[in-house]
Amino acid sequence: MAGSNLENELDMYNYESFSRSSSAGKSNEFKNSLRAGEEAPDFELPTLEGERIRLSSYRGKKHLLLEFGSIT
Amino acid sequence: MEFEFFTIYVREPHPGENYGAHKSWEQKLKFARDCRTQDGIQTHLLVDDLEGTVHMAYGSLPNMIYVIEKSGKIVYKAMWTDHEEVASVLANLVLADQLQAKGLRVKPSYTEKINFISAEYAGGLRDKVFDRAGSKASDDYRKVFSRPLK
Q1: Number of structural domains found in chain B
Q2: Of A69, B65, B85, B115, whose CB is crowded by the most CB atoms within 10 A?
Q3: Is B1 among the domain residues?
């Protein structure tokens, strides 16, 4: 069932409890994914005000800093 | 202004009674608003989708940081944010721009390093996080690391 698979994937990403498996392997995944010198993957995300920001719209214009975060 | 700063709000790494796992887009937006207010975030705050598409594309750690130069290339990435180090990376980009504006050539010097940062979370950050999340978050953390919280 496509619907339940999607729910499972969502539950895996948005896990309910921090555990060893929540962080296991993540450091290597990070190290081995994008490298300095590579193009940053493009994306479009909304601000809290509903404006949509596309990363590539800054190309040739500004340097960018992306920090990832959460409340907990 | 040569730079644009973004904070990307992603999943909750230490879910608890007060701030649990995201269940809906509306809830994620609400938590993101609370995050902006409680942390006094002044950058653009972008909210990743419920599936964490952007978060996963960039490595899925909770407090990663990337600096991307004008051409769209990554010039710096770190697992955890260290503001002093990031400031030096930005200063280097300013310097490169200034040299190029004078008609001088710059060349990339590929660098790898391991930066040591305190794991004790200066300023009571860990306590702040668990106070916000609720006691379940600190209980879960303790189970994994089996050591008392400072």
Answers
A1: 1
A2: B65
A3: no
Our CA-based measurement puts residue A30 at a distance from the nearest CA of chain B, in whole angstroms, of 4
Residues from chain B that touch A43, judged by Cβ atoms under 8 A, are 53-54, 57
Give the pLDDT confidence of A2-52 residue by residue, as tens digits: 567 777 878 889 999 998 888 778 888 899 889 999 999 999 999 999 999
Residue span of the structural domain in which B130 resides: 6-145
How many domains does the structure of chain A reveal? 1
What pTM value is reported for the model? 0.92
Contact between residue B61 and residue B79 where contact means Cβ atoms under 8 Å apart: yes
Q: Is residue A21 part of a domain?
A: yes
How far is residue B147's CA from residue B150's CA, in Å, rounded to a whole number?
9
Q: Does A38 touch chain B (CB under 8 A)?
A: yes
Distance from CA of A3 to the nearest CA of B (A): 14
Q: Is the pLDDT of residue B148 over 60?
A: no
In a domain, A69, yes or no: no
* DSSP assignment of B79-96: SS--HHHHHHHHHHHHHH
Asked if B34 reaches chain A (Cβ–Cβ under 8 Å), the answer is yes
C-alpha span between B6 and B29 (Å, rounded): 16
ipTM over 0.90: yes
Confidence at residue A13, expressed as pLDDT on a 0 to 100 scale: 92
Q: Is B54 part of the contact surface with chain A (CB cutoff 8 Å)?
A: yes
pLDDT for res A6: 73
Range of the domain at A31: 2-58
Q: Tell me, yes or no, if A20 comes closer than 8 A to chain B by beta carbon.
A: yes
Please report residues of B whose CB lies closer than 8 A to that of A15: 11, 15, 21
- Residue A22 within a domain: yes
